[in-house]
Amino acid sequence: MRKILIPTDFSENSMNAIKYATELFKYNRAEIYLLHAFADEVYDAKSRLANEIFDDLQKKTLAKTKAALENFREKIVDFSPNPKHNIHTIAEFGLLVDSVNDWVEKENIDVVVMGTKGETADKKITFGTNTLQVIKYVKCPVLAIPVVFGDVHPKNILFPTDYQLPYKRRELKLVSSIAKCFVSKVDFLYVSKFSSLSLRQQDNKNFLEASFCDNQISFKQENGTDVTKAINTFVIENPIDMLIMVNTRHSYLENILYQSTIEKIGLHIDIPFLVLQNLAR
């Protein structure tokens, strides 16, 4: 069984992510949790309100959120009537990242799914603020879905790796099961100017190979040091349907998330992006 948490702001982008998730996991028994954390909405108005009015606003926002979530739930059942899926709604007075982390721990969530952008859908940016915060700080794999993405069946998956750190079996099992459902090919891409691997790297590569023994996989190396260019080129030259990366200390992805913006780095992500957190859970 899969446990899937989907934060929503009730935007079209959010609904697109929900549709993608229900199709991606249509073959799995799944508990799907729709979450809307609304503390920011209430706090935005707090400075202008007396305490009594603020409390009343909080109650009204809770009621409105519950109604909106139920409306979303009914829409999901209409377009994806899957008897394998149970859909739950969570309306919570809390901050997004805190609420997501709380429910990840409480329900032992396998993956968080959300749109790359929220209600604003600024075309100049790759990821909205909320999505970036969730990718950075939530202790669970996060699958970010672009605003416009048609085919939900990931036939070709790109997984860049430097083989430096051992991966967590549970996270790899998630990827392997997705690939198995859709008979996907997984390409592991190693970018380095060195042709040989260290003993540690070879051990980690062997672990990857063993973890994906039931899948079609390939190991490729791009000579050089420009990881961004190698990823962009591979995505352009191959029909890649999903990109997978690991957010861990001193990793390429961490450098993007914490030291600059994805736009400045030049990594162009317009396909579903699964971020593994490499945490034991």
UniProtKB/TrEMBL annotation:
<dbReference type="InterPro" id="IPR006016">
    <property type="entry name" value="UspA"/>
</dbReference>
<dbReference type="Pfam" id="PF00582">
    <property type="entry name" value="Usp"/>
</dbReference>
<dbReference type="InterPro" id="IPR006015">
    <property type="entry name" value="Universal_stress_UspA"/>
</dbReference>
<protein>
    <submittedName>
        <fullName>Universal stress protein</fullName>
    </submittedName>
</protein>
<comment type="similarity">
    <text>Belongs to the universal stress protein A family.</text>
</comment>
<feature type="domain" description="UspA">
    <location>
        <begin position="1"/>
        <end position="146"/>
    </location>
</feature>
<dbReference type="InterPro" id="IPR014729">
    <property type="entry name" value="Rossmann-like_a/b/a_fold"/>
</dbReference>
